[in-house]
Amino acid sequence: MTAENKEFQFGGVHHVALVCRDMAKTVEFYRDILGMPLIKTLELPGNRGQHFFFDCGNGDSIAFFWFPEAPGYEPGVAAPAALPTQGSFVSAHGSLNHLAIKVPAEKFEEYYQRLKAKGVPVTPILNHDNSETQTSPEMTDEVYVRSVYFFDPDGVCLEFAAWTHDGFTEADVAHEPRRATVAA
User: Fold this and answer.
1) Most buried of 32, 69, 126, 144 (most Cβ within 10 A)?
2) 13-68 and 83-167 share one CATH topology?
3) Residues 6+ positions from 119 with CB-CB distance below 8 Å
4) Residue 166 pLDDT > 80, yes or no?
5) How many CB atoms lie within 10 A of CB 43?
6) What's the rounded Cα separation, in Å, for the pair 79 and 122?
7) Top-tier CATH class for 13-68
8) For residue 176, what pLDDT band results from cuts at 50, 70 and 90?
9) Residue 87 φ/ψ, nearest 5 degrees
């Protein structure tokens, strides 16, 4: 299924901007562990902090702000308290639950092992399908995406995700959106 935007011509996500506690640790993780090139750095005027951009492929970027006076991290509020399969994956309205980075399906297992070799705590591989549990312990024809989740140094939940088939059809859009209920 190809969806067409008749209002605007979008080219994907330009960048996602997150907030980090320590820019040096953020650079070490994204550039040195994940291998993302650091492509732009800014010192904010008035000594208000920094803003750095990393290339995550296809002309897309992940950016970080560092603010010297930013409030601290609140797991379970601004981000999930745990990785999928390891506890509550809920986060508050308006929060960034996780950031999925597309990786090639043929490299997925290699990249999973590479994260583990670099000492990054990861979830087991999740083979997402349309079964009742929505995951399969092994690859089947029903698996549409493979995922592994991990946290960055600031508790941002990241996912390496690999599509495993060529496209979706109208049958893949089969659920009515739910409305929020108002408390009595």
Assistant:
1) 126
2) yes
3) none
4) no
5) 10
6) 17
7) alpha beta
8) confident
9) 145, -165
Which is nearest to 64 in space by CA: 78, 50, 43?
Answer: 50
What fold does the segment set 83-167 form as a domain?
2,3-Dihydroxybiphenyl 1,2-Dioxygenase; domain 1 (3.10.180)
Q: Which residues have C-beta within 8 Å of that of residue 83, sequence separation ≥ 6?
A: 89, 122, 123, 149, 150, 151, 157
CA nearest to 98, candidates 159, 55, 145, 13: 159
pTM across the whole model: 0.82
User: What are the structural domain ranges in the chain?
Assistant: 13-68, 83-167
Residue 101: burial class (beta carbons within 10 Å; 0-12, 13-18, 19+) = middle
Phi, psi (5° rounding) for residue 46?
Answer: 70, 25
pLDDT of 56-112, one tens digit each?
Answer: 998 899 999 999 888 888 888 888 889 998 998 888 877 888 999 999 999 999 999
